[in-house]
Amino acid sequence: MIKPASVKSGLKLTEKVFEHLKRKGINAPPNASAFDIVNVDKGGISTKIFSFRNNDNYLVKRLKIDKNNTTGEQNLQVRFYEYLSNIGNNRKLSKVSAFDFDGNNKCKNGTIWDFYHPYKSKSVWFSRHTQSGSVNNFPGTSDYFEDANGFRIKPISIAEFLDTKRMLGHSRFVDEPWTLKQTVTSDIAGTECIRECTVVGVAGRKGITLNHLNPNNAQNYDIEPIKKALNEQIQEQGKDAKVFMLGSVEIDTNSNLQFWALRDIMEKAGVPFSAYKTGDGTIQEFVNMLPRGLEFGKQIRNGLTTPFYMHSSQHIICKGNEIKVANLIIDKELAKGNKNAADMIKKSFSYIDYGD
Length: 356
Known about the structure:
The chain is an alpha+beta fold. The chain is built from 8 helices and 21 strands.
C-alpha cells in the first residue's frame, strides 16, 4: 500500500529547531537557513527526506532515511551540494558528494561528482568517481603527437586536467612559488599556469623529474644552481634520459632570457631535448578568448564559470614519455570535435625545437 506523500516546505531553521534535529541524529549544515521534509510510505518502507537550503534557497544538503517498517532497519543516503560562488542568481554546481550508510552508521559507498563550466559554453563537463571506478563526459581524442625525441604530446581538456590534478595530490604536483624547491620526481607529475615560466621535465628510469621555474622569482635569477640541478637530474634519470622544455613568452624579458639559457644548458648537456615555446602570439590568443573588465569579474563573482578557465596559460600532466597539455585553444578545438592532436599542439606553441 502506498500512502500519499506528506510535505512540509520552507521550515525555518532556528537555533531551537537546529538543536531539536541534532538530538534526533540529523545534522543541519551551518550554512542552511530553511528546510523541507517529505514523508513517503511504499512497500513496507518509510522514507523521510530532509532538504536543507541556504539563504538564497540553494540546496546545500539532502538527507534520505529509509526505514523497514517490519524490521526497523534503517539505511541513510546523504548528499552535499557545492557551488562556484556564494552569490549570484544563476550560480552553478561545482560538486555533489553522496554517501550511503547502513543501520550501524557505517559508510557503504560514496560517489563524487565534479562539474566544470567553461566560459561562454552551454556544455557542462563532469566526472563521477566511486570505489569501483570513474566515468566522465570530457571532450577528448585518442590521438597524440609524437615528436622527434619520442615524447608523446596529447591534448586534453581543462576539465580533464583539473580532474587528474585532484587525483595527483600535493606530493606529485609542482605548485607555487615555482623554484627548484618545488621540483617533483615521480611516476606521474603535473603543474599549471605556465606562462612566463619555463617547465623542464627530465624523463628516464625514475619516471619524470618536473621543474617549474618562475623567471621573476629572485631565487631563479642565478642560472648556475639551476644548471647544476638539471645536470644532476639528467644523471639520476640514467643513460636513456631525455628532456622537454615548455613555456615562456617574449614580451617578458626575464622569461625569454631564462628559456634560451635553459635551452643552452640542455644543448651543452648532450641530452636529447624537445623545446616547446608558448610565445606572445599564443598567449594573445588565450587572452582574446577571455572576458574583459566587469564581465571578467562577474563570471567569477556570480559563479557562472569555473574560475580556472580564466587562466591564459598552459597546464600539463606528465607520465614517462607522455605529456598531456591543456589550454584554452585545445579546449575550444576539442569542443568543436577536432581530433587531430598534431594540429592542436601546433596551434598551442609558436616555436618547437628538437635540439638537432
